[in-house]
Structure formats: structure tokens, C-alpha cells
């Protein structure tokens, strides 16, 4: 769907709902380029036929006469096509988009003047650079601490041992152990005892 403001094709649907007459789907769209919002109505040929028949019936014409319905539909379609031509021709909503494109193209055609040459100073002796600072050691996370304790025990470590070695709360250790077992970092040997994989 082309944006009527900037002419870009990338748009997203914000809201979608049927119209009151249930003859079309009303979609509220937003352009991903300029963030402009606009509304579109989408209808199938069956829905369009239903709308035309309802309109024609509202004027008091008999629905039995198929010729009358067809002539009314042809007049309505001519009106719709004339409206579409008016909008596409730049008279209606789509005119600003064309103006914007022309302005952008006009700016692109302008030539940029060449840059003036500046005098360069002679370089003196090279300055000594300071030695790079040593990198800080990364702080060990709580999960790493628990996994390190588990790695230290070949037969496995239980929650009580982990609690004693790390000093963490029981609930925190259980959460870390659960997450690590789901990720496949540790394996449960028996109830409450875990080994490193």
C-alpha cells in the first residue's frame, strides 16, 4: 500500500475492523518511512455488489428488475473510476506525495561546490603514547560461582553444600540450578545432587 504522504510502499496495519454495513474492511495504516497515518477500505467484488444493491434498494427501485440494477451499477462504477482518476491525477490526497518527490529530486540535482584547499602544518616529532591500561577482570556472576563449586565435586554437589560454599540464599541457589539444568550446563545425578556436564 503506497503512503499518500511520502509515496513509500512500506506500511503497517495498526487497526482492522469491518465497516458498519459489513461491506468492506476498514484498515488504519501507518507508514514505516514518515510515520504518517491513513485509512484504507478493502472490499471483495461480492461485498461491493452487496453495497451497490443496498444503495439501489434504498432509492426505492424494485430489486426484480435486473436491468435497472445493472444500469445503476455501471453508473456507480463510472463515478468510482472518475474519482480514482482524479486522485491519481494529483488533484486529491496524493498530490502532496508527488510534490515531495519533486523537491527531493530537485535537491539531488544541485551540485555541491568543491571544498577549498587548506594549508597543512608541518608535522613535528611524534608524541609518545601512554601504555594501554590493563583490562579489568570481569566480575564473576552468581551463576558462574555456583557452577564453579559444582565442578569442584566429581560425585556431585547438593544444595546444602552449594549454600555453604557460596553464601547465597536457598531460593537463589535453586533458581540458578534450575536454569543451568535447563540450559544443559549441569546434570542431576539424584534428588538434590548435581554434577557438571
Keywords:
197 residues; alpha+beta; Arc Repressor Mutant, subunit A; 2 domains; three-stranded antiparallel β-sheet; 6 strands; 43% helix
Question: What is this structure's SSE topology?
Answer:
Layout: E1 11-18, E2 25-31, E3 37-42, H1 45-58, H2 66-88, H3 95-109, H4 142-151, E4 157-158, H5 159-166, H6 170-183, E5 186-190, E6 193-196
Antiparallel strand pairs: 1-2, 2-3, 4-6, 5-6
Provide a descriptive summary of the structure in words.
The chain has 197 residues and is an alpha+beta fold. The chain folds into 2 domains: 11-108, no CATH class; 142-196, Arc Repressor Mutant, subunit A, CATH 1.10.10. 43% of the residues lie in helices and 16% in strands. It is built from 6 helices and 6 strands. The chain has helices at 45-58, 66-88, 95-109, 142-151, 159-166, 170-183; strands at 11-18, 25-31, 37-42, 157-158, 186-190, 193-196. A 3-stranded antiparallel β-sheet has the order 1-2-3, with no helix packed on it. Strands 4-6-5 form a 3-stranded antiparallel β-sheet. Strand 1 (11-18) and strand 2 (25-31) form a beta hairpin. Helix 1 packs across helix 2 and helix 4 (142-151) crosses helix 6 (170-183). The longest helix is centred in the middle third of the chain and has 23 residues, at 66-88. The radius of gyration is 36 Å and the shape is flat. 7% of the residues are buried. Residues 91-98 have low confidence and may be disordered.
Amino acid at each position: 500500500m503506497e503512503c499518500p504522504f511520502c509515496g513509500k510502499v512500506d506500511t503497517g496495519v495498526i487497526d482492522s475492523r469491518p465497516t458498519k454495513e459489513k461491506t468492506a474492511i476498514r484498515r488504519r495504516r501507518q507508514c514505516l518511512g514518515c510515520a504518517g497515518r491513513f485509512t484504507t477500505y478493502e472490499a471483495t467484488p461480492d461485498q461491493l455488489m452487496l453495497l451497490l444493491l443496498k444503495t439501489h434498494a434504498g432509492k426505492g427501485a424494485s430489486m426484480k428488475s435486473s436491468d435497472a440494477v445493472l444500469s445503476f451499477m455501471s453508473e456507480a462504477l463510472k463515478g468510482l473510476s472518475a474519482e480514482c482518476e482524479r486522485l491519481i491525477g494529483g488533484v486529491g490526497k496524493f498530490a502532496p506525495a508527488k510534490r515531495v518527490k519533486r523537491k527531493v529530486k530537485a535537491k539531488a540535482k544541485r551540485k555541491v561546490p568543491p571544498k577549498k584547499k587548506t594549508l597543512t602544518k608541518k608535522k613535528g616529532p611524534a608524541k609518545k603514547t601512554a601504555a594501554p591500561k590493563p583490562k579489568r577482570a570481569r566480575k564473576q556472576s552468581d551463576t558462574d560461582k555456583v557452577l564453579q563449586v559444582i565442578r569442584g565435586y566429581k560425585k556431585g554437589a547438593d544444595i546444602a553444600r552449594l549454600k555453604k560454599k557460596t553464601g547465597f540464599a536457598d531460593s537463589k541457589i535453586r533458581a540458578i540450578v534450575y536454569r543451568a539444568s535447563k540450559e544443559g550446563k549441569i546434570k542431576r545425578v539424584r534428588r538434590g545432587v548435581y554434577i557438571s556436564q
